[in-house]
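Input record (Table S2, row 374):
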Amino acid sequence: MKTAIVTGATGFIGSRLALKLLKQGWIVHVLGRSKNSTSFETRIFHAIDDITGVPENRALFKNLFCHDVDICNPRLEMQNLIHSHHFDSETLLFHVAGDTRFNPPSPEMQHNINVSGPLNIIKAFHNHLSKVVHVSTAYVAGKRKGKILEGELDEGQEHRNNYEKSKLSAEVEVTKLCEQLQLPLCITRPSIIINDSVTGRSPTLTHFNALVYVVTRIQKHFKNDKNVNPSKEFRMPIDPTARPNLAPVNPIVDALIKVGTESTAPCKTYHLCHPHPQSNYEIVKLMAQAFGIQDFINLSFVYKFPEKFSYTEEMMLRSLKQYLPYLNEYCEFDVTNTRSIIPDYDSTFPVITPDYLDKVIYYQRHRQLRESHH
Ligand SMILES: NC(=O)c1ccc[n+]([C@@H]2O[C@H](COP(=O)([O-])OP(=O)(O)OC[C@H]3O[C@@H](n4cnc5c(N)ncnc54)[C@H](OP(=O)(O)O)[C@@H]3O)[C@@H](O)[C@H]2O)c1
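Output record (NAP complex):
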């Protein structure tokens, strides 16, 4: 049986990757941590069950091995782990874990997780690994414009935040270490991951979940709240022609597995990005249509807000704050390497439709309701 180690399996991408590998018959070792007195194993089960909202068949978990390991502080724990389990020399490492906050309270801690974390894991396990699949981000490209090639990394670009910088350093350091250890390495660079294209689900605040949150609040205020005065004029500080690269999580997870398992996949970098992203204009119109608010508000696009903005706009700005810098996207991520090992890559990405957005809205609203009851 094929064996994989997956880090970050309590997270958005890692949980789906671990489940998919288990369903394909892999032995999966997941490394992560207990939190707030909930064991790591319980956290993994919750994360996996949340993927569809229905508990997975527990028989599937017979090949899942959970190891309580903080990737920043691993030395002793990992030594014990390696001695207590049989890892053959053909184990595939998917390093997915990361601190994804754009501006974390402690950049040093983020550096420790994003850069030292993968180095710790690779150093501890290298004798057992046949290959490393390192999950980076397409935004190591920072604020570059135009076509970004997969082979490019440090082109002297400016970055938007610490997250991007730490992911670039991680690519550099992981590459150096794997070269030193003569360990095959594939670097994967997803763009902005959004809700599953089949179910509309996602456990984290994606760009779309944030939009649903904003519009739901706007609708609520229009209908119920007498104390606020929302405006019917609704300006979005984005360029309607820009094309943010939003990629549903499911084709990304499939592509990650392909990069890991395809014997012909050379040790290169793979952009896991939407090959034909839709424009802001299309996305916002579809969103307005899905919400039935097209005639409800006057939607317009502005380059930048003037000093004064309405209550509605202020609310929108606050909710979308973390994604706004990524919505005016003037670059195109080349996917030549990815297409070379996944010939049908482009067809795995559906276009965004009102039907998909309906599912996102349904899921996000129920999540908000659940959270407000807790
Ligand atoms: N989501 C995106 O839009 C996107 C786009 C491009 C690239 N990526 C990359 O994809 C990877 C996964 O992203 P995601 O969206 O799935 O993130 P996520 O949902 O925030 O999950 C992050 C995972 O990393 C784990 N982790 C963080 N610090 C750790 C530590 N010290 N020890 C052990 N585990 C630790 C977390 O564990 P806990 O649950 O214990 O915190 C969690 O399982 C990241 O490397 C990110 O840079 C994500």
